Automatic annotation (TrEMBL):
Its main location: other. This is Fe/B12 periplasmic-binding domain-containing protein. Residues 1-20 form the signal peptide. GO terms for cellular component: outer membrane-bounded periplasmic space. GO terms for biological process: iron coordination entity transport. Belongs to the bacterial solute-binding protein 8 family. Gene3D superfamilies: Nitrogenase molybdenum iron protein domain.
Amino acid sequence: MTFLTRQPSAMPRRSVRAFAATVAATALLLAGCSSEDSGTRSFTADNGTFEIPAQPERIVAIGRAVPSLPTTDAPLVGVVEYSEMVGITEEQEKTYEDLQKVGSGAELDYEKIASLEPDVIISGIPLRNFTKVDEDRLQSIAPTLSLGPLTPYEWKDLGEQQTDAAGVSGIFDDQKAEYEDRAAEIREEYKDKIDGVNFAAVEQADQGANGFTRQYTGGWITNIPEDVGLNFPGEGADTENNGATFTEALSSEKIPDLRDVDAIMYRAEADGSPVAGLEELLSQSAFQNLPAVEEGRILAVNGLWAETYAGALICLDSLEEALKNLPN
């Protein structure tokens, strides 16, 4: 299990989600979304509106609700196994390790979830996979909120909703404000190296595939650098017919297509070495002969896979260092 520790310091349902968020925010302003007598409030998620505790005490987090809730100290009693969380503190990591594990992905242990007696279940399972879950069974255990992404960059909005439901939005808001200030600071400091520059983001191929993956605007590893002003032009094919054009699987023969970009970014470990699986791409002569590589215009960035503001702050630190070393 991989953790990166931070020291303390266009589908139709998208419009449904936006409307639901607006309704929930309006209700919060008008009535606090709660009943002082019952200690509950109405909460609108992708799968409906539910009465949940105004301040939950026993939460089970599944899917991509896991990164946002441990990093904001939500009152968790159970979580799914999660392989990579960026920005979790040592104390939060220990808390996570000690929590009851209730499955992995959409494969859930319903009996174990029931035994934990949660007062709310918060799901971050991607919407396309939520249908694989026995929602009726979950709802019979506790109100279950579906707050899963359609696209990678939605972790920001969803994290806000997930932490709101968990009653820890204050911590989330503090992390968000710190992140936005830090991104603006880096943007201003390195604008001469960012403005007018075309970046390419590359990843190892999916498991079992050959070649490599290129990510564009709104991708898993591009959405944080975009907040600093980096531009990743182009788009992939909408292979799943869901409007997702932020990524593209390419054969090694397509490496020379990167000759037209000004700089290349990829994921790195904390020590700057490429993440596992990338070395095969980076070592190929076709890659080594690219103008950007020959000129040293490479950004090896740690934390690009972050799905929380706590993790994104680690990414910004690494990105700043990479920009500092990027030739003019």
